[in-house]
Amino acid sequence: MPEHSSVHAYLNWTKQRLDEMDAVLASLESKAGQAQAESKIKAEQLVADLKKRRDEFQAMAEKQAKAGEATLQHAQAQLETQWDSFEDRLKAYFEAAGKHIDQQQATFREMAAAQLKSWREAAAKFHEEASKLAAAKRAEFDIAIQQMKADAANTEARLKQAGKESGAALNTALAESRKAFDRANQEAWDAFKRAASPKA
Questions:
Q1: What span, in angstroms and rounded, lies between the C-alpha atoms of 108 and 102?
Q2: What digits encode the pLDDT tens for the residues 104-137?
Q3: Quick check: pTM over 0.70?
Q4: What does residue 52 show for φ and ψ, rounded to 5 degrees?
Q5: Which one in 24, 81, 139, 186 has a CA-CA gap of 20 to 30 Å to 16?
Q6: Shortest CA distance to 81 belongs to which of 97, 98, 57, 102?
Q7: Which helix (H) or strand (E) holds 84?
Q8: Which residues contact 162 (CB under 8 A, 6 or more apart)?
Q9: How many CB atoms lie within 10 A of CB 130?
Q10: What is the pLDDT of residues 48-74, one digit of tens each?
């Protein structure tokens, strides 16, 4: 059972990052077609580079999902490095583009929407797992699910507020949201693991 929950936590984590990468790519691709010739070439190069990074991330995530728990922890650390590289490349593009704050804000909104979607999907997955537990063992897990839903609502409010602020505030809000999701995801799976344990 512990390995089962570790795999689920890992899958939620990778799905959240992939959803966010896809949101970035969709946002940038929609704006690339509207750009002037020189900036259009740069935008297309950025999209191609980010797609390559996303595809590498996805391939590694899928390969490692079949591995054991120790391998998953190592894989997640490697994927976090790849995620940071993806994010750094995006930040560098926005810093160079400077005056295109509308594009940065549109991309932020897409990333925030992807994060919130991940929160909701993870909570739904936890709720589905909870339905499989005996009523006596569900209490702690139900509390973790409710906490995750409350954290998601708080995150949504913070992301909406950050969407009205500077680029630095946007990036900080997204990073804090990711950390909160990772923490809530792990806490919920740990609660499930304890509730599903035969000793519980």
A1: 10
A2: 888 888 988 898 898 888 888 887 877 777 666 6
A3: no
A4: -60, -45
A5: 139
A6: 57
A7: helix 69-97
A8: 108, 112, 169, 170, 172, 173, 174
A9: 19
A10: 999 999 999 898 888 887 776 667 777
